[in-house]
Amino acid sequence: MSVVTNTTTIGAIDAPSRRNTELALLAFAVAIPVFAYLNVGLALDGKVPSGMLGYGLGLGLMAGVAHLVVRKFAKYADPLLLPLATLLNGLGLVLIWRLDQSPRLIQRAERLFHSHSADAPKQLMFSAIGIALFVAVLIVLKDHRVLQRYTYISMVLALILLILPMFFPAVNGAKIWIKLGPFTVQPGEFAKIIIAVFFSGYLMVKRDALALASRRFMGLYLPRGRDLGPILAVWVMSILVLVFETDLGTSLLFFGLFVVMLYVATERTSWIVFGLLMSAAGAVGVASFEPHVQQRVEFWLDPFAEATLQQSDQAAQALMSFGSGGVLGTGLGQGNSDLIGFAANSDFILSTVGEEFGLAGMMAFLIVYGLIVERGVRTALAARDPFGKLLAIGLSGAFAIQVFVVAGGVMGLIPLTGMTMPFVAYGGSSVLANWALIGILIRISDTARRPAPAPAPSPDAELTQVVRP
Questions:
Q1: Does the residue 87 lie in any domain?
Q2: Domain of 369, in residue numbers
Q3: Which sequence ranges are marked TM in the entry (predicted)?
Q4: Distance CA 328, CA 237 (A)
Q5: CA 58, 60, 62, 65 torsion-angle sign
Q6: What is the CA radius of gyration of the chain?
Q7: Partner residues linked to 183 by β-bridges
Q8: Residues of the chain predicted below pLDDT 70
Q9: Structural domains counted in the chain
Q10: Alpha helices in 164-224 (DSSP H)
Q11: Does any domain span residue 78?
Q12: Does any domain span residue 117?
């Protein structure tokens, strides 16, 4: 007996988009900051703050718009990135508003500047602009691989952004800002994204030469001179940024990002050793003759020294705030981190977290940051194209390095750098740049998670005869 059947192509099963999961997580990401806002108001005044409804509606509206755009233009994107970023941004707004209510900071501002301007409304405006930039990235950037066309243009643009602050006055000893009328911009925040685009495009082309065409020197595998040239140029550029702008944070971020991406591209551990040696040599060399860097190192080594306590009082106050927070913290609105002064809501806002949330709350904050990095690395592993893999790991690495540099500086692990904690600290440039970074990661994750289209059935499919005895 024989049976004649047709062979057909079975289409791929459509993967779940996980947008409903994202929406549920966003509800929690909005509810937690609103509850924190209520806690601050009760702690400071003993009553529900009058602005809580407006704050909750504003944060919820921004999160809702972002979710709808992701649902429309990045259906298969990672469902955790947007809620995690929203949670950090919302809690940052609460912490800034809490410091705005401090009588000590108000009196200090009126004494020094003869006026006091609340920073929380401005940060809320910056957050709204950041969400708008996030939306623009998802709508305009249909495919992240388009960025590969601008590999060398992006490097030129990044160098321009890094060089521009040299022509503007220094602020607190560092030249990392440019002033455009009433606005102050920190170009290094945007440069980290553009540099990641350049490194991704360059290493995608040169990774075989850097990994295979190498020679052994003192136990390290070094590439040929013509391939090593751009790496040395990056190292020199990071040192020049440190020398002329006295910007330790951007210099560490700039070179650390390249070392991470080199290791991922070539899979050679020697690059990490080589990068650490070069960065250490450069830092020691600059610290030997640059007074501002020397001063920061001295404050780091002994912030309670009598000779420098007047200048290093912010670092000392930050360490004391961590100590007074204990394990569970003093409670929102009940700490004294406002004693740090004008940088309490920017460089040192993490000390408010450590004092009022305690060690447990600080660990929770760092875990949220770690989850963003983990989802970025997971996106890199899932990406189907090498450029997307390198770009996702580069953006995640830049984010992780910035968190480490800021947290390490405030906690006394490394010298202070002047950078801001992503999403939490006050600063428009930081909020805008990090929302753009999240937008690019979501675009890459959407491409990586999107199911491949099922192949069309062949019109020349033949009948297959199955013979059964």
A1: no
A2: 145-453
A3: 23-40, 52-69, 81-99, 124-141, 150-168, 188-205, 226-244, 250-266, 271-289, 357-377, 389-411, 423-442
A4: 43
A5: negative
A6: 25
A7: 180
A8: 1-15, 109-110, 112-116, 170-175, 181, 208-232, 234-235, 238-239, 242-247, 282-283, 286-287, 289-290, 292, 306-312, 342, 452-469
A9: 1
A10: 187-211
A11: no
A12: no
